[in-house]
Input
Amino acid sequence: MEQAIVVEQLVKRYGKLTAVDGISFAVPRGTIFGLLGRNGAGKTTTLECCIGIGQPASGSVRVLGLDPTRPRDLARLRPRIGVQLQTTSLPEKANVREVLELYAAYYGIRTQPQAMAARVGLDGKLDRQVGQMSGGEQQRLALALALQHDPEVLFLDEPSAGMDAFGRRILFAEVERLRAAGKTIVLTTHYIEEAERLSDRICMIQRGRIVAQATAAELVAQFGGDATVSIVADGFAPAALDGLGTWTQTGGQWNLATRGEPGLALAAIVTQANAMGAKIASLDLHRPTLEDAFVAITGETLAETE
Amino acid sequence: MTLLRMFAVQTKMHFVWYFRRDGEMMFWTLAMPVFFLVLFSFAFSDGPNARSSSFLVPGIIGAQVLSSGFWGIGVMLATFREKHLLRRVYLTPMPPWVFFASLVTYRIALLATQAIILIAAGGLIFHVRITGNPLEILAILVLGTATFVSLGTIIGALARTTESANNIASVLTVPLAFLSDAYVPIDRFPHAVAATLRLLPSTQFIDTFRDVAIGGAALSHYGAWLAVLGLWTFAGMAISARTFRWV
Output
């Protein structure tokens, strides 16, 4: 498969801080690649190196076969990529129509402000000035600026930051539309749900290094651990259920790390409880999630003080 | 064609966003210079007369050229960088020089408006007569604007924040307005002080402009100063080009 982006042994330093420490990955054309990690892990720096912001200390980057560190290549690359930055601050007095018109001029395209605004949920707000828009609306306008010229590759840096549920729905729908149109997307996020839902492949980054890279399903299967079943039932004991997996007890609750298919374990447990005349107060099944995989891999949770 | 469209739309947006929708900016640009003209015309003479006003009209225009370069270009660029606006523009196919050219064009349009208003107000209220050769007047204004845009760009290149750019611009603009023969005739200072102040590019520009516009002097008499202004322009461009960062 043809690669849209190839990053090899990328290193980027800010003074003494090594923000990106030997990252390598490849993104096939037409796929969506999610960089997942906590704030400060190096996601944004990696993305910036792909779009020609800042010179890497070492390593190489190719986007559509072009080297963004070389001015000539970068000039040829710019019309073919679309970027939504985390910190896009557009002039306060600019309105939606004018910003779309200006960016259309940058890319030498005709603009259809009405249609474009509608696409990012800003219909009827063409005359709204940036200074009067919510953070989420500004993010959606920034998204429109990344989309308007129909680029081949999109770089979205924390695209949903500051967006409400409506904004996220628009964003997710737009990413699906881009996927269907065969676009290549690199997005950074510190939201598990966003990474899992949008990306074909997920690359987990911790302290400037890649700690895992695969599809969400593979990551969960490999690192998520066993499905667990927990039961609270008076008079219940897992005697003769050792074959299902490993049992532990916390307080009045029995926990089973299942070995086989958790549905079969559930059935066996319910049968046993009924046979023992135990009254089930609660019975929970927890299948491993991408978050479990992330915790297992990094030893950290993604949730931060927000 | 594409470049021309980028340039035209960008220049228009500068004008709409930073001038037409900014009442404070409109006031400072259009009303303040005339207010200064009237105020200083009275303050520095026994009564309003053509002599003091004839000094002030080119002086205030010259001071506006300085502040356009230092504030309108220098501080603006630092603000654009701090707000990550330059970074965003850098990611588009628009060549950086088009963005810069449109900013300068927008400021020149404002300067031209200010100059017309000041000349009109000076003529109508104080009977100030512009007697110089229009082409020569235009030539020295273009050179002076180039000089202070070029020097202002150094502020935009070296200042890391809007705040420090603001401080640098204030430290330069306010004293220079009073030490460069703009508002106050430096002839009133001791001879050695005046001679020293005539080494400043701001003084050389404003004096040349005044002598050509009001005194009817020929621009060719100021060859040495014009050459020095050219050198400042060149130096400013060279330093800016080496140090300016878009991101």
The radius of gyration of chain B is 18 Å.
